[in-house]
Each structure stands twice: as C-alpha cells, then as structure tokens.
Amino acid sequence: MDKQIVEFLIRAKRATYAGKGAETASSREKSHDLIYRDGDYMYYDTYLGTGKFAGEEALWIRGIPYWSMNYVGRVTGENFSGDFLKEALLLVPEDKPFRGPERYANGDYEYRCEIRGDAEWFQGREIITYKGTEIYECVFHGGLVE
C-alpha cells in the first residue's frame, strides 16, 4: 500500500470512530456507519452491536473497492472504557494501519495489539486490560480486494 493511501487511511480512522466522528445514515437495520471522503478516496466503517460487535472497514479508490478489514469483538470484564479504546485507536501506526499500536497504557488501562502480515493480507488481535485483568478483546483480518 503506497504512502498516500496509508496517510488517507490513518486520517479516515482518526476522523471517524476513534475521533468520535458523526455517524451517517444506517446502511442496515440498527447498524452504525461512518464515512470519510477525500478526493478519490472513500473510507467506510460499518458495525453492529456495542458490548459485542462485528463490523467491516473498507477503502475505495475512484469508486473501486481496494482494501477491507473485518472485525469482531466483545467486552469481557468490568470497567471497560470506550474512550480509552478510542484513545488507543487514534494512535494507529503508519507501518500497520489497521487498529492501534502494539502497546499503549494510560492509568490502570493497557491496550495491546498483535498483527501478522501486511496491508495485502493480515490477521490480528487486540486486548484491553484493567489493572492487569483482560476486559476486552477484538480479532480482525483483512487485505487488498480485487
């Protein structure tokens, strides 16, 4: 994935869910949908649920699907903070622009993300712990589409 596309993807992620961006009209019954456009690029994030959720992020270039990522996650313990998750996701790394950084901590919360692969084909898992106890998990996978 070239630098311009990665930069767009990072801007899009920071402007939508992680950045507390406004939702657009629901594409499916009770779905949460967020869209970001810039020139020839469009990013779309759509998901179902909150405490237990599943969704997809996708990127189009000039109206042609280019990249996609599916994810499913759940809150598994007490004291989950959606704001902390969004804080971590704002730190999406340029070399792996999928979810958050390998590690991020703030107070009693810690976010960790493990990824195998690259933008063309990848799988990963992220967790959040509170005072050392896992309280959230999400698995994701994706890559280029033709």
Brief write-up:
With about 150 residues, the chain is mostly beta strands.
Query: What string gives the helices and strands in order?
Result: HEEEEHEEEE
Q: How large a portion of the residues is in β-strands, by DSSP E?
A: over 45%
The number of domains is: 1
End-to-end Cα distance, whole Å, is: 14 Å
- As laid out across the biggest beta sheet, the strand order is 1-2-3-4-8-7-6-5
Q: What would the average pLDDT be, to the nearest integer? A: 97
Over the alpha carbons, how many angstroms does the gyration radius reach?
A: 15 Å
Low-confidence region ranges: none
Instruction: Output the structural class.
Output: mainly beta
Counted beta strands: 8
Specify the biggest β-sheet. 8 strands, antiparallel
Counting copies of identical and different chains, the oligomeric state is single chain
Shape: globular
* H/I helix tally: 2
Helix content: 10-25%
Structure overview:
By secondary structure, this protein is mainly beta. The protein has one domain (3-144). 14% of the residues lie in helices and 51% in strands. It has helices at residues 3-15, 82-89, and strands at residues 32-38, 41-49, 52-61, 64-75, 103-106, 109-118, 121-130, 133-144. It has an eight-stranded antiparallel β-sheet with strand order 1-2-3-4-8-7-6-5, covered by helices on one side. The longest helix is centred in the first third of the chain and has 13 residues, at 3-15. The two termini are 14 Å apart.
